[in-house]
Amino acid sequence: MARTMDLAQYVYSADMTDFQTSYAEVAEAGFHAVVLGSERAQFDLRVPAQAQQAGRILESLGLRGSACHGLDIGPGGMNDPDDAAREALMQAHAGLMESTAAIGARTYVLHIGPLRADEPKPASWDRARQCVDRLVPRAEALGVLLALENGLPGYVMTNEELLAFVAEYDHPAVGICYDSGHAHVTGNAAAVLAAFAPYVVTVHLHDNDGQSDQHLIPGQGTMDWPAVVAALAQCPRLVHAETEAVNSAQWPPTPEAWPQQRVYERYMETLNVPGGDVTYR
Hints:
This protein has helices at residues 19-29, 48-60, 83-101, 121-142, 159-169, 180-186, 189-196, 225-232, 260-271, and strands spanning 3-5, 7-9, 33-36, 39-40, 43-44, 64-69, 107-110, 145-149, 174-179, 200-204, 240-242, 278-280. With 281 residues, it is of the alpha/beta class. Strands 2-3-6-7-8-9-10-11 form an eight-stranded parallel β-barrel, surrounded by seven helices. It has a two-stranded parallel sheet with strand order 1-12. α7 (189-196) packs parallel to α8.
């Protein structure tokens, strides 16, 4: 049976000066949903009152804040050996997850962290698992899915290790965020998605040249989009998709910043194939 699914639009933080103005452009372009984060223009969504105000603006525009990208975790991340830093990160994640869930977020993306050269990898894995253990009960209570994102070279987990981690964890509140750009740099993007498929709950869809994480609009890089879109339809737990093309004059890899309407049209052309099992909107 065909499914209809939201494509949540990501807006680059540096381009946001006013929350309502930025998202009015997104709504007028045709999008129905957006990606939330800790700071969106004048709002700090870690503060519940500010998150509620932002949520009311989105509702007035006919938008859903259905996806949230977790905090910019800095150099340490969930496998940071500093116990105090890791504890502060967990509290911050839990707070942001709670305030964004209150305004509609259903997925919360997590980066595991970088590979450390000064210790065995299992030690990093253990700390990352402890962090997931901390966040799972809160996510489950909020009705939020934790989405662990596949990384780039230098991340603590390879694609194969991430898949094994989530499969072994085997919890309904834990899944994978498939990042197409990362997958294209580390291997065959469609094949990575096909392997992840049983666990994918959200996706970051953007393009690159296969060499670096450029966050381009589909078609501006070398991604095999028909193969990726076909694999997307085979992800039974997928809740929604997210764009994550930066598309900003302030982002050096962007060849040309497009208006929101043109971005929406390109994503719709890319994702909505004739006879497809999923219709994105």
